[in-house]
Amino acid sequence: MDRAEGRALRVEVAYSPRGRAVDLSEVVLAEGSTALQALRASGLLDRHPEIDLAVLRVGVWGRLCPTDELLREGDRVEVYRPLTVDPKEARRLRYRRQRSRLSGTR
Q1: I need a surface site. Which of 12, 17, 76, 102 has the fewest CB within 10 A?
Q2: Helix (H, G, I), strand (E, B), or coil: what is residue 103?
């Protein structure tokens, strides 16, 4: 970016299309850029056509925000997919599996 465009911001854009898979990109944007501009600049929306921003939520560092939110240096824009399992239930299932593995080895 040259000085006429203002200062540059480095931000990350993250999306997890499924468990244990993360699409992470770093983009450089002009100061005053929005979360939506970061999503577009990252190419994330092209790589994942299943992302519908009218349905999925967007956030910065785990905090929900509108797509027109202004970004700051070092922000991480995240696209959140719907949960398939309640987090409390997932913890219970992991605990039960771990407990059964441990009891089977004794």
Answers
A1: 102
A2: helix
